[in-house]
Design goal:
This protein has 361 residues and is an alpha/beta fold. The chain is built from 12 helices and 13 strands.
C-alpha cells in the first residue's frame, strides 16, 4: 500500500487574511511540501498539470526533475498528465528522461483534465476528448515498448521509423494510472492495458465511484491480467486535522466555504458526509479512511489533497507532520491486517523490473 499526497497547485487567497501568494511563493511551497512528504515517511508526491490561472503547475516534469535531485525514496508522479492535449511523443520522451534522472522513482496518471478551454489552446477539439485519450495513449505505449515505430492516426502527423529517446530505464516504462471522475471509457482503457485506475473520488458520492471501480475490476479480469481483486486501484482523499475535532472544523470552515472548487455550495457537514473529506482529529481521519476499503475493496494507493483552498504553508506542513507520524503508520498496519490474500502490491520500478526478468526466465 502506498500513501502520499497530491496537489492541484492552485493560487488561492487565504480567506482569513485576504492575502494571495505570488506564483513564485506557491511554486516554492509545493516543493517544500514534497520534501516534507518524504521527511515524514510518505511514499508518493503527485502534481497536477494545468495551463490556466489560478493554477501554476504547467510543467510537471520540470518540478519533478528538481525533486528527483532532492529526494531519495519518494515516488514522483503526476496527478494529471493531459493525454488529450499533450503530444504523446513528447510525453514519452519527457517521462523517460525523468525516469532516468530519478532512478526509476516515477509514474504518471493520465487524464483529460477539467478545463475545457485547454483543448483549443493546444489545437484540439474538446468534443474529441475520449478518442484523443484512446489514440494518444495507444501511441504512447508503442513509443515506450517498441524501439522503432511506424504509425498513422487521426490526430497527429504520421511517424515513420521513429525512435523515442531516451528509452525507458531498464526497458520498463513508468507505471501508468488512468485517472477519472466520470468516464467509464477511461476505466475500460485502464483495464484493457492492465494499468492502474485512479478514482479521484474527492467530489462525488461513493456510489458513483463504486460503479467505475467495479467496471474496471471486472474488465481487468476479462482481459486476463488477473482476478478482479488483483486490479490496481488508487483513491483520492482530503483531510484537515487538529487535536480536537471542533478546532479542526472551526479553523478549516472559512477555507472550505471560499474554496474555488466547492466553496459556496454544499455545507462542510454535507460535503464530509458524502465525500472522503475528513475534518477532525487524526483518529477520525484513520477511521474514515479505513471505510474506503469497505466500499471499494482492497486497493494499492491512497493520495490526500492537503494544500488547497489558500491554506498557508505553515499549516500544510503541520498537517503533514500529523499525517506522517500519527495517521499513516496506523493505516499501514490496519490495512495490511485486513488485506485479503492474493491482492496485488502497489507497483514500483524495482518490482516491475523483477517481474519482467522473472517472466523472461
Amino acid at each position: 500500500m502506498q500513501f502520499g499526497i497530491f496537489t492541484v497547485g492552485d493560487v488561492t487567497p487565504d480567506p482569513t487574511t485576504g492575502r494571495t501568494p505570488t506564483e513564485h511563493e506557491r511554486i516554492k511551497a509545493m516543493l517544500a511540501i514534497a520534501r516534507k512528504a518524504e521527511e515524514v515517511g510518505l511514499d508518493v508526491f503527485a502534481t497536477g498539470e494545468h495551463h490556466n490561472p489560478p493554477f501554476v503547475p504547467s510543467s510537471p516534469t520540470t518540478m519533478l526533475g528538481y525533486l528527483a535531485a532532492r529526494t531519495e525514496r519518494l515516488i514522483l508522479s503526476t496527478s494529471t498528465t493531459l493525454i488529450t492535449t499533450n503530444d504523446p511523443v513528447k510525453i514519452a520522451e519527457d517521462f523517460a528522461m525523468l525516469q532516468h534522472i530519478a532512478d526509476g522513482r516515477v509514474d504518471l496518471m493520465m487524464g483529460r483534465g477539467n478545463t475545457g478551454p485547454v483543448y483549443p489552446w493546444f489545437g484540439q477539439d474538446i468534443r474529441q476528448g475520449i478518442p484523443l485519450a484512446i489514440e494518444n495513449y495507444a501511441l504512447l505505449r508503442r513509443l515506450w515498448t517498441e524501439d522503432v515505430v511506424d504509425w498513422e492516426g487521426r490526430f497527429r502527423t504520421p511517424l515513420q521509423g521513429f525512435t523515442s529517446t531516451p528509452r525507458p530505464l531498464d526497458g520498463v516504462p513508468p507505471f501508468v494510472w488512468h485517472g477519472s471522475i466520470r468516464s467509464p471509457e477511461i476505466a475500460e482503457q485502464a483495464a484493457y492495458y492492465g494499468d492502474g485506475f485512479f478514482a479521484n473520488n474527492i467530489f462525488w458520492p461513493k456510489d458513483h465511484f463504486k460503479r467505475l471501480i467495479n467496471l474496471y475490476r471486472d474488465r481487468f479480469e476479462h482481459y486476463g491480467h488477473g482476478t478482479r481483486e488483483q486490479a490496481l486501484v488508487g483513491l483520492g482523499g482530503q483531510v484537515f486535522m487538529r487535536r480536537r475535532s471542533q478546532d479542526a472544523v472551526r479553523e478549516f470552515r472559512p477555507y472550505f466555504d471560499n474554496a474555488p472548487v466547492y466553496g459556496h455550495g454544499p455545507s462542510l457537514e454535507e460535503f464530509t458526509d458524502q465525500t472522503p473529506l475528513t475534518v477532525g482529529s487524526p483518529q477520525e481521519v484513520i477511521d474514515k479512511t479505513l471505510t474506503f476499503r469497505e466500499s471499494f475493496g482492497d486497493y494499492q494507493r491512497q493520495l490526500f489533497l492537503m494544500d488547497h483552498a489558500g491554506l498557508p504553508l505553515k499549516t500544510v506542513l503541520e498537517q503533514l507532520d500529523m499525517l506522517g507520524e500519527e495517521v499513516v503508520p496506523v493505516l499501514r498496519q490496519e490495512m495490511a491486517a485486513r488485506r485479503a490474500a492474493g491482492v496485488a502490491d502497489a507497483p514500483t520500478h524495482a518490482t516491475r523490473v523483477a517481474d519482467r526478468e522473472g517472466a523472461a526466465v
